[in-house]
Amino acid sequence: MEKIIETKIHIGLEKPVKILHITDVHLVDYAEEDIPEKKEHLIRRRAVFEKEAGFPPHTQNEYFSEAFEIAERENALTVLTGDVTDIAAIGTRREFHRIADGHDFMYCPGSHEFADFCRTPGPDHAEIYKRNYDSFRESFPNLKVTFDSRTVGGLNVITIDNSEDYFTAEIYDKLRAEADRGLPMILFMHDPIGDWNLLRIRPINENMRRSPEEFLTSDSVLGFIGRCPLIKATFAGHWHGESEAVAPCGQKYYVTPGLFKGICRMITID
Ligand SMILES: [Fe+2]
Predict the structure, then answer these.
(1) How confident is residue 137, by pLDDT bands cut at 50, 70 and 90?
(2) How far is CA 89 from CA 3, 59, 180, 256, in A?
(3) 34-59 pLDDT, tens per residue?
(4) pLDDT score of 66
(5) 120: domain CATH number?
(6) What's the gap in Å between 257 CA and the centre of ligand 1?
(7) How far is the CA of 211 from the centre of ligand 1 (A)?
(8) How far is CA 36 from the centre of its chain?
(9) What is the Å distance from ligand 1's center to 113 Cα?
(10) Predicted TM-score (pTM) of this structure
(11) Which of 109, 253, 119 is nearest to 194 (CA)?
């Protein structure tokens, strides 16, 4: 690993809890069975990530394997916040399985997991998203893609899907139910809560098939995250760079750089 960001949060736990946050691995491997267009796309994307990462000494695949080893050695819970695969392809998913199977981790998806080539919503966005989402669920039946929670040492660790740049009503209900349990919570998601895509309250183009009500629900979730005293911090990826700030809703967010750069974050909560 080129860098492990150390983050310490004090909330008064009896014993420290360690979490290794990994995000934006962007696996770009193709399989012979993938269509030629996807192969060509993935070859181009490999070059894009090498350049964006500054030509690091290892591949994202190697950093991904190493991250699991670090988490296990440090007795840390591994949390992945999406864009593990750069696109939905046979090769990228096969590599996700090859590296991650047999390891214990929590997961939420990113904006790339269910895309054929890129994430820009076009007229057929909903159809492509659904097809890739369904095949992902089939390929990874053990991952709780929409919402997951796990209690570790008195801390409630939660993963949330906001990969389509909004929070659904289902997320709102589940988050409030978790808050009713009364434990301190740390949230993990793909889009940082300070991201402009999450902050908007209306569709930006005609291809965005979300109603004004759905955007308002998403905004209510942000308001809840800002108000709920049990939520101690939120962690995300998506931006590929390191960031730490307070979102307009009032809640703290940390952004971890892409693992393809050889960077991850070790969080210690005590
Ligand atoms: Fe990404």
Answers:
(1) very high
(2) 29, 18, 39, 25
(3) 999 999 999 999 999 999 999 999 99
(4) 98
(5) 3.30.750.180
(6) 9
(7) 26
(8) 28
(9) 10
(10) 0.96
(11) 253
Q: Is the dihedral of CA 41, 47, 51, 55 positive or negative?
A: positive
* DSSP result, 75-96: T-EEEE-S-SBSSS-HHHHHHH
CA of 14 to the centre of ligand 1 (A): 35
Q: How many A from CA of 172 to the centre of ligand 1?
A: 24
Asked if residue 75 lies in contact with residue 18, where contact means CB atoms within 8 angstroms, the answer is: yes
Strands 243-246 and 252-255: antiparallel
Domains in the chain, number: 1
* Dist. CA 250 → ligand 1 center (Å): 25
Residue 153 CA to ligand 1 center (angstroms) comes to 30
pLDDT band at residue 111 under the 50/70/90 scheme: confident
Whole-number Å distance, alpha carbon 112 to ligand 1 midpoint, is 7
